[in-house]
Description:
The complex is a heterodimer of chains A (441) and B (187). With 441 residues, chain A is mainly β. Chain A is built from four helices and 17 strands. In chain A, strands 1-2-3-4-5-6-7-8-9-11-12-13-14-15-16-17 form a 16-stranded antiparallel β-barrel. In chain A, strand 8 (226-242) and strand 9 (247-262) form a beta hairpin. The longest helix of chain A has 18 residues, at 40-57. Chain B has 187 residues and is of the alpha/beta class.
Amino acid sequence: MSRSRLSKFFNGLFCLTCKPSIQTPCVWCAPRYLLAEFNIQLLLPTIFIYLFSLNALADDLQLSLVLNQGIVGTSDNGFYGDSDDGFSTDFTELSINGNYRISPKVRIAGQVLYLHAGEVNDGVELDYLFLDSQFYSNEHFNLGINLGRFKNPIGHYNETRDIAFTRPGIFLAQGIYPDSLRDLFISSDGILVYGNLFQPQGEWHFEIAYGKPRVEKFGKFLPKNTDISRGRATLGRLIYEHNAGQWKLGLSYANQTANVKASDLSGFDLPVAVNGPVNGEQISKQIQLTAQYNFSRWTFTAEYVYTDADITGKDITIISPLPPFAPLTLDFSIGSQTESFYFQAENRIDRYWTAIARWNVLNPNKNNKNTEIGNASFGYIDSKRTSDLTLGIRRKLKKNMMLNAEYHYVKGVAWLAVEDNANSSLKSPWQLWALTFSYRL
Amino acid sequence: MISHLYRLMSAVRQLNHIDKNTTPQSSPLTPVKSRSLRLAAFCCLIVLFASMHLKANEQSHLADETVPITHISHDDSHNGPMNIPRRTIRAIYSMRMLTWPDGRPLTVFVLPDDHPEHQQFCRNTLGILPFQLRRSWDRLIFSGKGRAPIEVRNMAEMKKSVSATPGAIGYITGVQVDESLAIIKIL
């Protein structure tokens, strides 16, 4: 991590009054400022030595830290930064995760993330923080509730997508877990109810959640002068794991909305003049199917997702293009349907080496409707089919350290991030390679 | 592994035999076919040797499968042996249960992933592969939905930790169990 990036990281830690003019820090920010400015390398180790010494003292507190640093190169197009010009090192993930048992049945769990993913993400965020109460439990069945910010239970990887050790390779299948749209899926604030049923042959796990989705970064897909506010998220997932996870089937459903208010639509090339503000709603519904089979050496995983994204507007006043040019009120709806699937095979060659192969297809505009407007409707940079063949290898160095290398051959550009490709024309087919080092404590 | 190798080698030997001692007319395999078969067998052998070479480290760490494993739990109230159904043991070690069915806090102790007794415990008691267990723990830990089991370095530490922690569960080899420990019988 470069010094400037670390400074940016610490910038997130200063209070609001100090942030704009950190040259004159307040009493509370001064020590952090001094550390950040003069001895940046000492601060993190100090915090962790402190926290982990606490950890050693208390069984009820569990902490972990995961660091992942990568380099990414592409033949064309930008992915995780300016990768086609040599390579990009703008790929850092640092997570600190804690979990405290307050009473036998009540826990509190939280995670703070520092993510740097090219121009898409660069900053510290509170990934989740919730109270978990397993209020009913017997030997066959238990029921619990999570209150706070929780990870959206979607598919096999969504909840742990930012942790290198839970991913099979370096990047997840970008058609289903696009890093360019990460914020739309990641977590919600609200309530989640879960249950586990333990049967002799297998286990059932379900989760139902209701809350507000995080929409801080929805705005980048909308025209300027658009306000966006949080709508609602309804989520559900059912998983069956047979014989302690030998095979596994899952079904997830997510329905997320955001409220959109546009005061100026001049950026849109509309056939009619729009008078006054536009109130709308963005609705995204997705269904995801998951299957996995584990052998001693092999793991096969497949997932399929179908997404229906709509932007609707209500009571919009337009000026009629025909005489007598009177104002008219109408409703509109723009929709696009997306589907994606992948097949993935992992081979544990021995206790150090793992190889992975994956075939992923994304069809961002399945029904080919509204291609012109639908192009930007769900944040994809392009509406053409994109396929990705991935080959990767993992070397475990120690129990808590690993190296990964990965190669992608990609036809299409749909899941590339708008931010990383602002000033260049996109080329297809293209190739991607990446190397990462990961460490956990 | 050895038996596979033996079978393959005898297959190759048989092919050689066919080549030498039979005329092309009477042979069930034409020379071209037998050559390609031999080539395939040769490739298989190379792959086998390669994987054996890679597996050599792993093999040396595998335990003698005959060491019996005793499942233990903390027992300061001297309730004596416990009976627990296998599905509950699986639920406990998959870290999906926070408490014992009677409401006491549950603390799970395990040996390191590559410890022979841990591997044996995973396969024989839970019927699961160690990597699967590690993956499901990681999914729970990093999504905040569960706690990690506490890892101890060896048997002595396991025995000490389980007997010192109320609500603890673990496993040891042999049956040297003292008063602070209860033996768990899996139904």
